[in-house]
Design brief:
single chain; about 250 residues; mainly alpha; Helix Hairpins; four-stranded mixed β-sheet; 5 helices; 4 strands; rod-shaped; binds zinc ion
Length: about 250
């Protein structure tokens, strides 16, 4: 095989690694963000549950204070009883006492209602708390794992880029420019096999002379349709014809 073609195949293998690594690095921040969002959602639920409980506790304190105020009011009304002179005054005071009693009773009913709800809401809290703790723990682990992966891949990418640079220096610059152009246009595939008389990049059927030229491998031959560089692998052709779905690795 043409030596430069061999290098282009190597270069493409490296570029695929670069693409894979770039993909991993590009996805990591969003994956971490998504994990964080899941944890934040449970945190929000927990905060809201705590807020509801605090609100109910506050309402109950207010009701207690209201009951106290009404009881004080009642005591004052009762002192007035000693100074009562007429039946009319007496009736008015009794009516006032009734009204205060009603207010106290209403407050106490409300208090009881809130107490029941408070008990219910409080009993739900531990489950939410433990769910949040679990989420928090999972997220921390996930984030640490993702960050470690990110650093590892970043390091590997540097190594691969070094290998890319080294191989680039051995290929004719004009060829590299062409290769880059084809690679960008064709989704990361610039050098492809010829199999079953077809370019494996665009699946265009190749002329017999082109196939012979690729097989001989003296010159670099391009697909007339997609301009990808073509190469020949002897064993893949025979194996494919024998068993199309059982290509052996390597
Ligand atoms: Zn093609």
């Amino acid at each position: 095989m043409n030596a430069e073609l061999q290098k282009l195949i190597e270069l493409q293998a490296i570029d695929r690694e670069v693409l894979d690594f770039d993909r991993i690095l590009g996805a990591a921040p969003n994956q971490i963000k998504a994990g964080q969002a899941e944890m934040d959602a449970v945190k929000k639920e927990l905060d809201q549950a705590r807020e509801v409980i605090a609100g109910m506790q506050k309402s109950n304190k207010q009701l207690e204070a209201d009951v106290q105020a009404e009881n004080d009011h009642m005591a004052k009304i009762k002192t007035k009883l000693t100074a009562v002179k007429t039946n009319k005054e007496y009736s008015a005071i009794l009516a006032e006492v009734e009204s205060v009693k009603e207010k106290v009773s209403a407050c106490e009913d409300k208090e009881l209602e809130i107490m029941e709800l408070l008990e219910e809401k409080s009993s739900e809290l531990p489950a939410i708390e433990s769910r949040f703790k679990e989420e928090e723990k999972n997220f921390k682990e996930y984030k640490a794992k993702k960050e470690a992966e990110y650093e590892r891949v970043k390091g590997e990418l540097e190594v691969v880029k070094g290998r890319r640079q080294a191989i680039l220096e051995t290929i004719e610059p004009k060829r590299v420019v062409l290769y880059d152009k084809i690679l960008k246009r064709n989704d990361g595939l610039a050098v492809v096999e010829v199999r079953e008389s077809m370019c494996q990049g665009c699946f265009h059927r190749l002329r017999p002379q082109v196939i012979i030229d690729v097989k001989v491998g003296e010159e670099i031959v391009e697909c007339s349709h997609c301009y990808r560089f073509l190469y020949w692998v002897e064993e893949s052709e025979t194996e494919d014809q024998a068993a199309p779905n059982q290509r052996s690795a390597g």
